Predict the structure.
Amino acid sequence: MSLSDAQTATRAGTGPDWDLLRRRGKSLLVHGVVLALVAIMLLPLVYMVMMSFKTSTEIAQDPLGLPDSLYWGNYMAALSSMGYVRSVLNSMGITISVIVVVVFAGAMAAYPLARLQNRISRLIVMVMALGLATPNFVTITPIYVIFRDLGLLDSYLGIVLAFAALKLPLAVFFYTSFIAAIPIELEEAARLDNCNNWQIFWHVIRPLLAPVTATLSLFVMIMVWNDFIYPLLLLTDKDKLTVMIAVYKFVGNTGIDPTKLFPAAVLGSLPLLIMFAVFQRKIMAGATAGAVK
């Protein structure tokens, strides 16, 4: 209700609807706070993109100002020296492979754990959940030694198996809680149609896992794409490097050159943003589908 509406209502003897005004004021306040938080979160990204189009002279003279013009030389130098396309394809292949392995292995492991309500199954779920609290630097040494003995170092299979082992506890934790909430009557009806356990899982349980699978895939995609330690230690062939390692080797560790750092950072995060934008609708559709499961 506007001020004129409130004055008109007051003259008419009915008075303004203060509850409506209060709700609208609260809504405007909430929207303002949300927009302010979004602006704060986007500020580093905007600054990174802005700096990537500056020359070294512009960065030194005015590090916080806008670029005089869009200088593409920084990006051309990065693309020619990083092996960018190859590293992006490596990261995409590794990430998608890890998601597939984690989703299928996690779902199949979680199904019996969710249905066998006994101490052993609960203990296994708790032990798997403890894997979520284990830092990466604790597991890197035993994984490196095991993979060295198995001949899996510097291979796509090795890095995929390493990431899958690290993310599998997260998948089991997600799927176990979700499957436990699925009514058991659905499985009993399938058994009346002479379905075995595998058929029940594949035809009854698996289609219902779309919401949690979308959420899990998003988490795994972000964690695998941004991981730095495991690709750095397990991959040495320059043709197998992920995009994050390519960015690191391009920028170097002896000094920080802003004309290399900012365009490399933009190029490193750009494919992940594009994949998220492309699959955002499916991710949101899968997440909201859980409300009507």
